[in-house]
Amino acid sequence: EDRRAVRNEYAGRRRRLRRLAALAASGDRSPSIAELLEDVVVESLVRDGHSVEARQLLTARLENQTKLLGTLHPAVGDTAQAIAALAEKTGDFTAAERMLKLALQVREATLGGDDDQVADTSYALSRLYERQGRDSEAEALRQLASAIWSRKTAPTTAPTEVALEAPPSVP
Predict the structure, then answer these.
(1) Is the pLDDT confidence value at 25 over 80?
(2) What distance in Å separates the CA atoms of residue 121 and residue 18, rounded to the nearest whole number?
(3) Distances from the Cα of 44 to the Cαs of 47, 49, 54, in angstroms?
(4) DSSP conformation letters of the chain
(5) Mean of the per-residue pLDDT values for the chain?
(6) Using alpha carbons only, what angle is made at residue 33 by residues 29 and 65, rounded to the nearest 5 degrees?
(7) CA max distance for the chain
């Protein structure tokens, strides 16, 4: 499950860089380019051990997104999830929980309760609860995440029976 989180993190980075390249190639100068570049700065700050500064940058982004887009917007969920990761990393479990709950609320409202991002956020919140010794809450969220992931990997239809009779002959 930890490999899945790392794989998702790297996949997210690749998607952001591809979007940045596509926007730059198109000549678009929208705020999304600024956010993508800001993501690169945040990743650099974190890599260099400046998690507090990275969190401040993301917190300012979240405030702007909430004002411009409203609370229930996918970008708000993404930013809240990123802030939660940094808050947890710096030991601020209260802020991490608040941000993960916000991300979960946004994702359930905008993506539906059966989306992989809802499962990923539920799992992240379960890990946080586990670190705090809140095992029953952690288990409930882990079960939710597992149920979503298993539905995504299960076949969507039952296998069909193969007809045993010969096909009709062509005249």
Answers:
(1) no
(2) 23
(3) 5, 9, 9
(4) -HHHHHHHHHHHHHHHHHHHHHHHHHT---HHHHHHHHHHHHHHHHHTT-HHHHHHHHHHHHHHHHHHH-SS-HHHHHHHHHHHHHHHHTT-HHHHHHHHHHHHHHHHHHH-TT-HHHHHHHHHHHHHHHHTT-HHHHHHHHHHHHHHHHHHHS-SSPPPPPP-SPPPPP-
(5) 83
(6) 105
(7) 77
Q: Give the model's pLDDT for residue 163.
A: 36
Predicted TM-score (pTM) of the model is 0.72
**Residue 142 structure tokens:** 């882990």
Half-sphere exposure of 8 (CA within 13 A, CB side): 15
Other Cβ atoms within 10 Å of 133 Cβ, number: 8
**Cβ(166)–Cβ(140) below 8 Å:** no
- Cα–Cα dist 116/4, whole Å: 11
121: nearest Cα among 143, 145, 139 = 145
- Length, in residues, of the chain: 171
